[in-house]
Amino acid sequence: MTEITRVPLRPIAKGSLTRLWLGVAAAVALAGGLAWAAAPHGVEVKVLAEGTGAAPGPDDVVFVKYVGKLASGEEFDRSRPLPPQLQGFIPEGMPVEMNQKGGMIAGFEEALKDVRKGGRYVWHIPADKAYGATPPPGAPIPPNADLVFDIEVTDILTRPDVERRAMMLQQMMQQQQQQQQGGGQTAPQSGAPRDPGAPQ
Predict the structure, then answer these.
(1) Residue in 87, 128, 96 with CA at minimum distance from that of residue 115
(2) Which domains does the chain have, with CATH numbers?
(3) pTM of the prediction?
(4) Residues 100-155: tens digit of each pLDDT
(5) What pLDDT, on the 0 to 100 scale, is given for residue 190?
(6) How far is the C-alpha of 28 from the C-alpha of 39, rounded, in Å?
(7) Burial code of 28-50, b = ≥16 C-beta within 10 A, e = fewer?
(8) 129: DSSP letter
(9) Fewest CB atoms less than 10 Å from the CB: which of 14, 82, 95, 187?
(10) Residues 6+ apart with CB under 8 A from 1
(11) Which residue from 48, 53, 47 is spatially nearest to 116, judged by alpha carbons?
(12) Rounded CA gap, 150 and 97, in Å?
């Protein structure tokens, strides 16, 4: 018969196992803390009013009223009111296309994906998701500034719907311009003689 070689094991000193596990836990905590500190932080969204309907899709246009502020509360930008001639054709607020590349800061684009029509939000956008070290020339935004946006979503429309409304608006404006150029004259009825110099 073959004999198995026995290896003598020394008993573990009292408290060694506890120290080993404490060391492992400290190493894991340190690694987790370093990973958290090195990771870019996302946009913080505070929902003031939930809104209704679905979130915008990649081919939608979101209309937003907004106020942009620095973390200190100093306002640097705001949406403009809708001119009276556009009321009824397009919703209030600035139109933002969902799939525009490079047209908005990363944090704004990230937060915009989860809005709803009628929703009101406050977005805290960290500098690395805003303008970082290079804000736009002449802007009142300092380098590496965190930004805060007060947002109200007035509507979410499909791009074809927005284009259709824009065409209707353009046609209406052309008709008004023609009427102004013609001095308010109406077109002659069919069969009536036409003035060759009159606008068609």
Answers:
(1) 96
(2) 44-161 (3.10.50.40)
(3) 0.67
(4) 776 789 999 999 999 999 999 999 999 999 999 999 898 899 999 999 999 999 99
(5) 41
(6) 16
(7) eeeeeeeeeeeeeeebeeeeeee
(8) G
(9) 14
(10) none
(11) 53
(12) 19
Which letter does DSSP use for residue 86 in this model?
G
Q: Say how many residues make up the chain.
A: 200
Q: How far apart are the C-alpha atoms of 179 and 173, rounded to whole Å?
A: 10
The token duo for 102 is 């490079």
User: Residue 56: which of 106, 111, 104 has the closest Cα?
Assistant: 111
Q: Residue 96: which H helix or E strand, with range?
A: strand 94-97
For residue 183, the SS3 value is coil
The secondary structure of residue 117, as a DSSP letter, is B
d(CA 98, CA 102): 11
Residue 10 structure tokens: 């020394």
Amino acid letter for position 65: K
**Cα angle for residues 159, 163, 164 (degrees, 5° grid):** 115
Amino acid letter, 83: P
